[in-house]
Specification:
Layout: E1 8-20, E2 23-35, H1 38-50, E3 56-60, E4 66-70, E5 79-89
Antiparallel strand pairs: 1-2, 1-5, 3-4
């Protein structure tokens, strides 16, 4: 994805908890994808929320090509806290 200074991008990311038999880790984060189109970002977010218990999720990138996202929020001890979109302006 080509971006220039001043472009607006939409970062889709997840916040999740994880752990094991000995403890829990909360507030973990992972970037899912960065989009130039807000509608594509919203579609990605909704797909992640819908498939939150899947270990791998098929999503579309900026060019509408499928890619597989390895979901860190899926697992026995893992749980999706939220999937969100952050709007950013590209700077130097």
């Amino acid at each position: 994805m080509d971006v220039s200074v001043g472009d607006v991008v939409f970062v889709v990311y997840v916040v999740y908890s994880s752990g094991d038999s000995f403890g829990t880790s909360t507030g973990n984060g992972d970037i899912v994808c960065v989009y130039k189109d807000a509608e594509k970002a919203v579609e990605c977010m909704r797909t992640v929320e819908k498939c939150q218990n899947s270990y791998s999720i098929t999503l579309l990138n900026n060019d509408d090509e499928p890619f597989t996202y390895g979901n860190p929020a899926a697992g026995y001890f893992e749980s999706l806290t939220s999937c969100e979109i952050q709007t950013l302006v590209v700077e130097e």
